[in-house]
Amino acid sequence: DIQMTQSPSSLSASVGDRVTITCRASQGISNYLAWFQQKPGKAPKSLIYAASSLQSGVPSKFSGSGSGTDFTLTISSLQPEDFATYYCQQYNSYPHSFGQGTKLEIK
Amino acid sequence: QVQLVESGGGVVQPGGSLRLSCAASGFTFSSYGMHWVRQAPGKGLEWVAFIRYDGSNKYYADSVKGRFTISRDNSKNTLYLQMNSLRAEDTAVYYCAMAAAAGGWGQGTLVTVSS
After folding, report:
1. Which chain A residues are within 8 Å of B45, Cβ to Cβ?
2. In angstroms, rounded to a whole number, what is the distance separating the alpha carbons of residues B78 and A65?
3. By the CB < 8 Å criterion, does B9 face chain A?
């Protein structure tokens, strides 16, 4: 099975900051990587698929990159609504494992 | 617009069974593979199962293999998860979700396994 490791597990940032979250796969997954945002008590929301493709309706302040084993999610110009938990997920092979999550908090 | 609505959650005793449903609308359900994903209280997301668009292939997490069955009825635009031999550790919010590139998620249904 492929293990997904996110770093950091938590992150404090200020409104207006640019932040980067990293996701590492235990073996190569090409670009079969998705990112999700989840707010407390809510369902996850899809942000990015195929490592760098933005889901429809997702603002361009979110961007993804990477291929193989190392991936990043970058959020520019943080706004209050961006503070949430972010998850990566590989869908190269079953089981489609998730990272443990990165909680982005307001500093 | 894509809409996924889960139902069927509730409280069940250990060893019991439950069937979850996910009603889909706003897209051509029969063209998309579908997942079940769960989230235990205060924990992260855990992938549970996947079924191809036509039901021809199904995949399961080791933690549910042999106990849970994913299925679909494309004539009713509905996805199912039959859960048998339930354990306390199956307590979670269960979400249905479209394949990654499509991106839609339901709002979730809570399953509590407790005596």
Report:
1. 36, 38, 44, 87, 89, 98, 101
2. 34
3. no
Residue located via tokens 């399953």: B111
A42-89 confidence digits (pLDDT tens): 999 999 999 999 999 999 999 999 999 999 999 999 999 999 999 999
The two tokens of residue A16 are: 């207006």
Please indicate whether, in this complex, the C-beta atoms of A98 and B59 are within 8 angstroms of each other.
Answer: no
C-beta atoms of B47 and A89 within 8 A: yes
User: Do residues B33 and B24 lie in contact, with contact meaning Cβ atoms separated by under 8 Å?
Assistant: no
Over the stretch B30-88, which tens digit does the pLDDT of each residue have?
A: 999 999 999 999 999 999 999 999 999 999 999 999 999 999 999 999 999 999 999 99
CB atoms within 10 A of CB A17: 16
CB atoms within 10 A of CB B26: 11
Q: What percent of chain A has pLDDT over 90?
A: 99
**B45/A32 touch (CB, cutoff 8 Å), yes or no:** no
Taking an 8 Å cut-off on Cβ atoms, the answer to whether A100 and B46 are in contact is: no
CA-nearest residue of chain A to B51? A94
Using CA atoms, how far residue A100 sits from A26, A44, B44, B48, in Å, is 14, 14, 6, 15
